[in-house]
């Protein structure tokens, strides 16, 4: 099988149409279609179902796509490593991070990283760390749970316990809860995000609650910034990572003696990037900065 034709097939499967694949590869729509037809003839199998809205992979196409995707990813990883064989770390690096950690801790520290490594161009996805590293949707990820994808290097990065907060204005109005059972008389803000494996808000709602009359949140929200703003405005009590609530926050920590659920974060990257200088310097930077600025 001709790799050029396989590359065109891969682009077509990724974009869903001959026209879009042509734009990606700088080829005409007819040239892409001709290469796919030729590949189907060589394989003696249809690769796409053609219909008015685009292209859908056939069963045979899915099998081929899986293999070609793996080869393309490995080639991309190898190219990235070879570019760094000599000289200083450089090139593009995409980072997938938990939304709270990425927005409130990582981004404020990136100025120092860029000063040290100006030739590394960063892209950050605050998607809960769920970017598929094997598919190269990200080069490295910071995940709040141990990933189980194959061929990944996993390094524990830090461990933390979330804290319970409320605004002073809320406590003046509703009173300070002194025990877990006191939360029955309070409004709870639930921050729920798919990147958080063991939902702390669920834990807070169930903490010391009467099982016959379960608590319900006054607000459920999937954005950490929105949840913190709601709590700061006096809407209710929330449980948030310590790195998400800065020293200038209007909120007060409450029930500090309660042992909240522990979470371990991991620095994760594909095994193919084990020799990447960009990955190594970014990992070392995170570890050094956490020692200087723990939470």
What does this structure look like?
The chain has 295 residues and is of the alpha/beta class. The protein has 3 domains: 3-82, Orthogonal Bundle (Arc Repressor Mutant, subunit A), CATH 1.10.10; 91-157 and 264-292, 3-Layer(aba) Sandwich (D-Maltodextrin-Binding Protein, domain 2); 163-261, D-Maltodextrin-Binding Protein, domain 2. It is 40% helix and 20% strand. It has 9 helices and 12 strands. The protein has helices spanning 3-15, 18-25, 29-43, 59-82, 99-116, 168-174, 200-206, 224-232, 277-292, and strands spanning 48-51, 54-57, 91-97, 120-125, 140-143, 152-160, 163-167, 189-191, 219-221, 238-240, 251-253, 263-270. Strands 4-3-5-12-6 form a 5-stranded mixed beta sheet. A hairpin with a 2-residue loop joins strand 1 and strand 2 (54-57). Helix 1 (3-15) packs across helix 2 (18-25), helix 1 (3-15) packs across helix 3 (29-43) and helix 1 crosses helix 4.
CATH topology term of the largest domain: D-Maltodextrin-Binding Protein, domain 2
Termini separation comes to 54 Å
**Any low-confidence stretches, pLDDT <50, length ≥5?**
none
Instruction: Compute the number of structural domains.
Output: 3
Radius of gyration: 24 Å
How are the SSEs placed, and which strands pair?
Layout: H1 3-15, H2 18-25, H3 29-43, E1 48-51, E2 54-57, H4 59-82, E3 91-97, H5 99-116, E4 120-125, E5 140-143, E6 152-160, E7 163-167, H6 168-174, E8 189-191, H7 200-206, E9 219-221, H8 224-232, E10 238-240, E11 251-253, E12 263-270, H9 277-292
Parallel strand pairs: 3-4, 3-5, 8-9
Antiparallel strand pairs: 1-2, 5-12, 6-12, 7-10, 7-11
């Amino acid at each position: 099988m001709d790799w050029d034709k396989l590359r065109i097939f891969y682009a077509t499967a990724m974009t869903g149409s001959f026209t879009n694949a042509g734009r990606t590869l700088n080829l005409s729509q007819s040239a892409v279609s001709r290469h796919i037809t030729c590949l189907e003839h060589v394989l003696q199998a249809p690769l796409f179902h053609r219909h008015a809205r685009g292209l859908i992979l056939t069963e045979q196409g899915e099998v081929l796509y899986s293999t070609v995707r793996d080869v393309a990813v490995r080639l991309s990883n190898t190219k990235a490593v070879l570019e760094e064989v000599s000289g200083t770390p450089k090139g593009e690096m995409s980072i997938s991070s938990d939304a709270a950690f990425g927005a409130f801790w990582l981004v404020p520290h990136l100025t120092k990283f860029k000063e040290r490594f100006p030739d590394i161009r960063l892209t950050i996805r605050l998607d809960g760390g769920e970017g598929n590293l094997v598919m190269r949707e990200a080069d490295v990820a910071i995940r709040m749970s141990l990933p189980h994808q194959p061929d990944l290097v996993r390094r524990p990065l830090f461990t933390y316990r979330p804290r319970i907060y409320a605004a002073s204005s809320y406590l003046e109005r509703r009173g300070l809860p002194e025990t877990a059972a006191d939360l029955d008389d309070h409004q709870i803000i639930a921050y729920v995000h798919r990147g958080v494996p063991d939902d702390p808000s669920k834990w807070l709602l169930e903490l010391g609650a009467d099982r016959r009359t379960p608590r319900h949140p006054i607000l459920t929200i999937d954005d950490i910034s929105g949840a913190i703003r709601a709590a700061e405005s006096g809407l209710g009590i929330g449980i948030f990572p310590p790195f998400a609530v800065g020293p200038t926050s209007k909120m007060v920590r409450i029930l500090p003696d309660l042992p909240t659920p522990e979470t371990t974060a991991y620095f994760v990257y594909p095994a193919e990037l084990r020799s990447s200088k960009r990955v190594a310097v970014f990992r070392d930077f995170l570890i050094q900065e956490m020692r200087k600025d723990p939470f």
